[in-house]
Amino acid sequence: MASVNFERTIIYTNHYRLNLNSGFGGWYFVPIPREYIGLSVPLSFNNLIGSGSNFFEADLGLRYTFLSERSNKDRFQYFPILNLGYRFQRPNGKGLLFRSFIGYSGLGIGVGKLF
């Protein structure tokens, strides 16, 4: 999966942040014996627990997909977003963002720019 996301903080305390995340990108899904590929629009709530630059991350939401099966059948489907992982971001909210996670979609890593 590759995507461009926008994330906005809605609740901010010393050790907790709740962010609303939305984006657009490609998505690849392989439930045996089929293979799907297509575009997706995720919408999720991203919970960050921690302090300083290090956070535990729990991402919960829904992904709307425009999938094409390799047999050329198109289908639109919703998939849950359920990811648990680690996030590094500076306390001032600027600079580099790094995240690694495991979830419903598998393993993932992400790198981003905060501004």
Could you name the key traits of this structure?
115 residues; mainly beta; elongated; single chain
Report what the structure shows.
By secondary structure, this protein is mainly beta. The chain has one domain (2-114). The protein has strands at residues 2-12, 16-29, 36-51, 54-69, 74-89, 95-103, 106-114. Strands 1-2-3-4-5-6-7 form a seven-stranded antiparallel β-sheet, with no helix packed on it. The two termini are 23 Å apart. The relative contact order is 0.18. The mean pLDDT is 87.
The CA-CA distance between the termini, in Å, is 23 Å
Per DSSP, what share of the residues sits in E-state strands of 2 or more residues?
over 45%
Number of domains: 1
Number of helices: 0
Q: Which outline best applies?
A: elongated
